Amino acid sequence: MPDSSVVGGFSPEKTVIYNSKAKGVFLVILLLLWLWVGIFLYIHNFKIPGFILTLLTIIGVIASRSLFDRKPQVIISDRGIFIVKDGFYPWEKIKNEKVIRVGEGRQSKYVLYYHHALGTVKLDISLFNIKPQALQQLLERYRHQYAIRTSA
Predict the structure, then answer these.
(1) Domain boundaries, the chain
(2) Which of 1, 33, 97, 106 is spaced 20 to 30 A from 23 at the CA atom?
(3) Using an 8 Å Cβ cutoff, are 83 and 94 in contact?
(4) Closest by Cα among 123, 101, 128 to 112
């Protein structure tokens, strides 16, 4: 669950979103299975397929290291949005923030999407510990809080 002092994932101050531990464990199990299959093939005289599968699995493990990053990946507050890879953008510099589905079928994923002064952010949220609908609700709530705070 997102780090929050209020049930439902919403805090008056901020919501902190992390990588999902469950999805990380599932990925590790899957990668270990592929590694085992690659080694098995290599040992049983399927040298080239076994080597290729083992090599691809090792590359997958290296590429998925960021999944085990325990730092907050996204922080949303009535001040703006912080993304670990892009930094902080205040609400007054953000436009059209929403959670959208990109792609079709099994290739589809949800992304946090918004415009700011320097470009557009499209952050894949599929490995985070929050559902797309919940993130969309948080964006709307914090944007509303920002509007109330700045209009007073």
Answers:
(1) 23-67, 72-151
(2) 97
(3) no
(4) 123
Torsion sign (Cα): 15, 106, 102, 33? positive
In this prediction, the residues of the chain whose per-residue pLDDT falls under 70 are 1-12, 63-68, 152
pTM score, whole prediction:
0.71
- At residue 27, the 3 state secondary structure works out as helix
What count of other Cβ atoms lies within 10 Å of the Cβ of residue 111? Answer: 18
**CA-based torsion, 55, 61, 66, 67: positive or negative:** positive
Per-residue pLDDT tens over the stretch 71-81: 888 999 999 99
Q: Which fold has domain 72-151?
A: PH-domain like (2.30.29)
Residue type, 60: G
Assigned token pair, 24 = 């990380």
* Diameter over CA atoms, the chain: 74
Distance (Å, whole) CA 79 – CA 108: 31
Q: If residue 151 lies in a helix (H) or strand (E), which one and from where to where?
A: helix 132-151
